[in-house]
Hints:
- With 556 residues, this protein is α+β, with helices and mostly antiparallel strands.
- The protein has helices at residues 3-6, 9-12, 65-69, 76-79, 133-145, 149-158, 160-163, 173-186, 196-211, 243-252, 261-279, 283-292, 294-297, 306-312, 320-341, 369-373, 385-397, 416-426, 448-456, 476-489, 510-521, 541-555, and strands spanning 17-19, 29-36, 39-45, 53-59, 80-87, 93-99, 106-114, 123-130, 351-353, 357-359.
- Strands 1-6-3-2 form a four-stranded antiparallel sheet, with no helix packed on it.
- A hairpin with a 3-residue loop joins strand 9 and strand 10 (357-359).
- The protein is elongated and about 105 Å long.
- The N and C termini lie far apart (96 Å).
- Residues 1-28 and 337-376 have low confidence and may be disordered.
Amino acid sequence: MDIRQIKKLSKIITVPISLAVALSGISAFAKTSQTGDFEITSSGSISAKNGEEITIDVYYPDKTYTDLLNADIGDYTKILLRRDQTTVGERGKYEFKFKVGDIPTGEYTVRISKTNAKTADDVVVEKLVYSNPNDYKTAVEALNKAASVIELKNIIDTYSMALGIDLSNETDSDAVLTIMLNSVKAEKLKSDDAKSVQNCFNLSKLVAELNSSKTENINNKITVLDLSKCGLDGYYTKSYVNEDVQKSLTSRVSGKNFDSIPKLYKSLCEQFVLAVVEKSGSNSAIKEVIDGFSEEIGASVSGFSERNLSELSGQNYNDYSALKSAIDNIKSSNSGSSSSSGGNRGGGSGGSIGGTKTYPTVVPDTDNKDIELNYYVFDDLDSVEWAREPICKLAEMGVLRGKEYRLFYPNDNITREEFVKMLTVAYKLNIENKTAKFTDVNADDWFMPYVAAALENGIVNGVSDDMFGTGQNITRQDLAVMAYNAALKNGVEFNTEGVQKFSDDDKISDYAKTAVYALKSQDIVNGIDGKNFAPQDTATRAEAAKILYALISLSN
């Protein structure tokens, strides 16, 4: 049959067309897939020159190119779903994307060829399993109502192609389907999510494999997991999640006989924290995960020194309860040590704030300064040498920490809630059983108890009567006000008599002037150029650390 005659088919099949050409890749391959409701995309490479024309044919189930060649022209539309032409880009790359209408679920044949195909290299043929969205929706609704494993299996077998699941290749399908059934009862499948059923099935397979201890490293299956469901999406990609941590996590969640996906997710979060403590070898990583999940653990390591964190590192805790006990024991030991020796680390006496609150001295021992500064090291402080000592000292005290392992990001802005936490930790304010009145501070926000404690102690006010200003970068004048209030609360006295005003005094808000000039009287703030204070500019993490460190030193 003359190919020019077959080309007339494009006029007969009136389906909307959208074409795009890709321009890079390797030779002789094709990938055709369903990329949306009633949408197919095919991309790949064929042995053709840049600009050469190619044709894509999509054949109905059980139909082929041979059937087309032998058919009468009136039967073309019963054999060929779609024919399009385009030109290839560099290295023979191409892409087709088109809508297909309400076609049945089934296995379609896709044939991509040069217009004047002569050899096997000129043609690429592959299979496409297409799922009609209406069939998929019907199957999902049935699965959500399934009451037994047998019923679940029958539904999957009936709609196997629409769901993209083939149970014939599963060696332990009953175990997988039992887990899947329990999981669907706990959380219904979504008919508007084309991956919902496959994701649930694949996760059920993973749970079954873990129950049978058949998974060597869970990291190899990490793409199957939705880490956001167990709160690990912001942690698992960190550099401290090395192979040792991964294998420890795998071992910890293996052989547990989880009966559903939610049960795995619940355990995964807890065992991840414990695996980091045991195998990361990083004190900053241990601090990050424990403080990140302090509510679940029931304890935090705020204020822990490097030595304290090292006591936890490498230990094999079975659950949060065991970890909490270890943390509490270290805190008790620290309290006993503080009572008997004044709580100092480098010789000299501990400092007191407000008469009853004690903390390790932060006044550097000049004979041992270099050693002191090595207690907690960040690698990105070269641009803020003026703040290196305050940052390192406060980190060693547990008042602040880096954003990543050995990285502090000193020039990043600091938010209002982040600085409030620094103040409350530095001055040992009680954060237990606190609530905040602000509408933008929720009960489950990590910073809620710190904001509530600071509010109760007269250290902070909101940006309005009912708003704290959550998420806002703190201005220099507001930082000064909070720092000043905290210092006053803890017995620091200021004398602002004779203090020279900044050149931009008229830009400093009235409520902040007393605080700004009180700090200036002690040379804690000197402005950005010795003349201007820039009250509305946002403060950096380094600036916040330097001011807080200076105030604590005054409290000493």
